[in-house]
Amino acid sequence: MDYQRELLGGSSFLDRYEEQLSSLCRNQRFINMISLASKEAAEKTGSDTGKAGKNIISDTLFRERAYLLLPEYAHIVDDVARSGYSKKSAVLSIYYAAKILNASSSCGSYSASQANESAACQQDYHVQNSSNANTRRIWEEIAFIIDKYRKDGAPEREFQIEMENAFEKLGWSRRLGEVIAQYTIPVGSAHSVRPDLIIAKEGTPIFVVELKKPSSGATPRNADQLFSYMRLLKLNVGLLISDVVQLYYDDPSNADNPRLVESIPARSDCEEGPILFDLLMKDGFAKSSLNAYIAETLSQQTTLTQVQYLRSRLLSEQGATLVNETLTDFFHSEAAKDVIHDALRIYLQKEYPQEVVSQALDGLDIKWENQPRSNNSPLGQTSAREEHTNRESSYSPTEEPSLFRGKKVGQIANDHLRAMLERGNVSPEEIQLMENSEYSTRVFGINYPLLVPASSPHDRARYYATPLFIRGIAYKLCNDWYESPANNDRPYLVSWLQSHAQDIFSS
After folding, report:
1. What is the count of structural domains for the chain?
2. Full residue range of the structural domain in which residue 102 is found
3. H helix intervals, 269-402
C-alpha cells in the first residue's frame, strides 16, 4: 500500500516531524492505538485509505484520546493546524506515517538500549487498559443506577448516596474531604445554597455536581442551579446528573451561561461515558487534560455546525449561484482555454474527422459567455423579502398535506414542528443550526432563531412559554410566524416539514 501519497506534503511530513514520530513509534500505547484504528477501518470498510475508512481512523484515535495522552501527537496536530490545514488531516497523516515507518522497521522495532523504555511502555499500556476497564465497569454501574431511579422514582436523597458511592469508586474519598455533600455556601447576609456534591483535591474544589431524580429529568432550572454553584465557587467545570449526564464548561473570557459540552445518555454501551469518567478519576486526574478534552469537544461541535451550515447553503439556490459564478470565473480565465478546446474537440469529433476539428479549433479564441453575475456574494445574504417572494411564487396551498389545511402557520409550528423536534426526528447538527438566526431566516423565513436554550437570555415575547425537550435539553420555540401577502412564513414551514417527514405528512 502506497501510504506516502496520503501524507500532507508527501515525504516532507516524515522529515519535518521525524523526532516526534520516532518518539511515538517507541510508545507501545501509540502502536496499539494505530493497530486498533487499522483493524476497525479494515473490518468496517475493507480499506484504510477510502473516505469511510479515514473517518473511522480519525474517530478511533479521538476516542482513544491520542491527543490528550500523547504530547508528541498533540504537537504535530497543533503545528499542522497552525499551518492552515485541518486537524483531521494531521491525524490521518500521523496514522499513515506510522504505517510507513512500521513497514520500514522504523516503528515497532527496538534496539537493546530501548528495551527498558519499551518495557515501561508495555507496563504503562497494561495499567491504562486496566484503568479503562475499571472506568467502564463504574460507568455501567452509574448507567444502571440512573435507569433504576428513572423507573422507580425513589427519593432524591437515595440517588445522592448512590452517586456519592460512585465517585468514591472513582477514587475520591469522603473521609479525606474529597467528596463533599451538601456544603453550605453563604449568599449575602441571610441566604445560603447547598450544592449536592463538590469534588475537591487537596482542599481545593475542582468541579461541582448537581443531582436530580432521573424520574424527573434534567430541566433548565436544574442547569441554572448548577450554573449558580459554578459561579459562586469560581469553577469552570460542572456536572448535571439526572436521566442523562451533562458536562458544562464556563468560559471565563465571556459572561454567557456555561456551555453544554456534551449530554451523555445513561446507557451502559455508550462510549462517551467511560471516556468522560476516566478523565474524572482521582488517579491521574489532571485539570489540563480535562480542559483539553473539553476544548477539543467544543471545537468539534463548532466545526460540525459550520460544516452542516455550509453544506446547507451550498445545496441552496445561493450555492447554485456560487457554482455558476465559480465556473464563470474559471472559463473566463486563460487557464480555461485548453479545457474548452479539449471539450469541444471530443464533442465535435463525433461528427467531423479529427483533422478537420483540429484545424478548425487551431488559433480560435472561444469565450465562455454566461448569465450576468449577481451583485450579491454567492454565499451572501439574500434579503428576507427576496426569499419570501421566491418561495411564494412557486407555492400552492392545494399541495399542502390535508392535516395542515385550515390551520394557521403558528398552530402548525406549535403542534407539528414541536412534536417532530421532541420525537428526536431532527439530527443534533440541525438542532444546532436552528439556534442560528441567519439559518432560521433562510430556512423558515422568521426573523429570530427557531430555537433558543430555555436557560439562555432571549426575547420571551418572541417564544412560546412552554418549553420543549430535545434529547433531555429544554428549548423555547419561536412564535414569531406571519402569514400575510407581504410576509408569508407558511411556505417555508410546510416545505421543511414535508421534506423531513414525507412519510408522515402525506396527503
Report:
1. 3
2. 4-109
3. 272-280, 287-314, 317-331, 337-348, 354-361, 384-393
Where do we find the cell 390551520?
407
| CA distances to 192, 202, 207, 225 from 186, in Å | 4, 22, 18, 15
Give the confidence band of 374 by pLDDT, cuts at 50, 70, 90: very low
How many whole angstroms separate alpha carbon 312 and alpha carbon 430? 10
We report the CATH number of the domain holding residue 170 as 3.90.1570.30
Tell me the pLDDT tens digit for each residue of 395-416. 555 567 777 878 899 999 998 8
Q: Which of 285, 314, 343 is the last residue of a domain?
A: 285
Longest dimension (CA), the chain: 98
Residues 6+ apart with CB under 8 A from 110: 26, 117, 118
pLDDT for 159-203, tens place per residue? 999 999 999 999 999 999 999 999 998 888 888 899 999 999 999
Q: What share of the chain is helix, strand, coil (3-state, %, to 5)?
A: 55, 10, 35
pTM above 0.85, yes or no: no
Amino acid at 236: N
Look at residue 284 in the predicted model and tell me its pLDDT. Answer: 81
Residue 272 shares a structural domain with residue 154: yes
What is the grid cell recorded at 63? 476516542
Residue with cell 430555537: 451
Round the average pLDDT of the chain to a whole number and report it. 81
Rg (CA), the chain: 29
Residue 503 has pLDDT above 60, yes or no: no
> H or E stretch including 96?
helix 87-103
Contacts of residue 324, defined as CB under 8 A and 6 or more positions apart, other chains included, come to 370, 371
Whether residue 71 sits in one domain with residue 155: no
User: Is 117 inside a domain boundary?
Assistant: no
Which residue's C-alpha cell is 390535508? 402
**Residue 172 in domain:** yes
